[in-house]
Each structure stands twice: as structure tokens, then as C-alpha cells.
């Protein structure tokens, strides 16, 4: 339940930042599922062949199914066609009307059967359509977060179908074979829990996947700088500042940007002695020259390393050159026997 409310809060935050149709449908879907589960847990509502006590929960699930259909339809164009919206809203409204009508009748068997068939029949159809849309759209997106989002939502819808099928089977078996078949009811309840958890994880997936990708990018880039940074930090200890371990995305990115600045400052203080790299081989030549003269970087002779870097028109280009220099420095170091040097990371 906490997972569902976390997903609902996340989608609400996204909708407040960008009030699009898709984000709005996401909010309605996740909030309705979270409310339905909360109501089920806290109200002590009856469950089984009787509709009594389940109406509010089931109506919320109808709303959630409708919102899920609409949000999946909006993924390609940003907003479904008015006819598609009207058809699905009208169908859901009819189902809700049938459920409400049969609910207020005496708890007769016929009314209960109509209620259950209307609700679970609609839910099954909505889940099948949602699953079809997920399969279709999952092939259209290259973004890993979006793919994981659709995969988990599709998985949740597939397990949700087991829930609806089990409830229809429950009614059939209860009326014809065994009164209140507990095993079928328990299996359906488990499917509902697993399916809703899958949908919640799918909603949270894009942000989680992108966070992991950002963390991995920052850590990998930091490791690329390490050999050059360690030697510069050993030669010029005052250029370094203590940074926290990269246990979060924010910390990993701070450490990476800090290392970039420290490498740039170190290059602005390190003096390089011949051979001076040629224009056509500036970066790799500078890497070799830095490696050869690293024991004398602090002596005021030669040329500052930063003056040998190619002129860059942007910060992005400067970053690219520093990475290329660090890569070549590592490669050159692997080909020679390094001298003792280095500062602790």
C-alpha cells in the first residue's frame, strides 16, 4: 500500500510540474488504485460472492481501469481522440450504473451475479486492452525507463486478469459446486496485490531507471579521470576538496564535477617538459608528455599543461578533451612502469 501511495504522490508531483493529459490520467489511475486498496484494508468490507460492502472499492477500480486505458492511448499522441475518450467513458459509466443499481437491490443471487459479471467483465476487457496497448507501445520506445514502465504495467495488467478471472470463477463455483471456495478467493486476492504492486513499480520505474543511469554515468566518468586526478592531487594536494562517497546520484555527480574542476586546476599548474606535442596529436601527445615529466610538474620550467590543450568553444568540448586526455594518460601509463605517485581518492 505504501508503494501505491508513493507512486500516486510521484505522479501528482509530475502533474503539478506539467499538467498534461497523460500525467493527469496517471494521477487518477494510481490514486484510485491506492484508495481502493486502502479502503479494502481499513474498512473490513466483505468479499466473496456478495457485492455488499465492496461497491466503493470496485467503483474506484473501474475508474482506475478507465484512467489506465486513457493514459496508454495518450502515450503516442499526448491525448486520445475525442471519440476514443467518449467511448471508454460511456462504457465505464454504464458499468458503474449497473453496479450501483444491483447494489441497492436486495442481496438476491441474481443481483449479485449481475453485479459481479458487470464489474469483473468490464475489468477483464479493460485489462486486456491495456495489455495489448502495452505490448504495442513497448516496441516503439527506446528509453529504458519508459520500456521498464510499460513492461511492469503490462505485467500488472496480466496478473490483474487472474484476479478478475478468479472472482468470476468464485461466483460460478459458489453457485454450482462448493459454497464459498476459499482457495479461489485467496488466489484472487494474491493476484490483486501482486498486480497492483507491479503497476505501482511500473509507474515509479522511469524515475528509478534514470536515476540509476545518471549514477552509473557519473561513477564511470569519475573512474576515467582517476589516474590523472590521483597524480595531479599528489603533486598539488591543495587543489582537492573532500567529497562524500558516491552513494546517491547527487553525491556521485558532485564528486564527478569536483574531480573535473580539480583536474583542470591541476593542469593549469603542472609544467610539462619536452617533447611538446604536435598540433595533430595534441591530446595524446600531452598525455605522454605529462606522464614523462610528472615528477617535475611543480618546477617552474617548461610549459603549463593547460596551455597545450586545444582551444575549446564550450564547456562540453573542454570536458570532452579532459576525458580524452585522462584516457590517453591511463593508456600511456599502462605501457610504462609507473613511478610511485598518487593521492588517496
From TrEMBL:
Signal peptide: none annotated. InterPro entries: DUF6545. The keyword Transmembrane helix applies. The chain crosses the membrane at residues 21-43, 55-73, 85-105, 117-138, 150-170, 182-205. It comes from the Bacteria. Residues 214-292 form the DUF6545 domain. Pfam families: DUF6545. Keywords: Membrane, Transmembrane, Transmembrane helix. This is DUF6545 domain-containing protein.
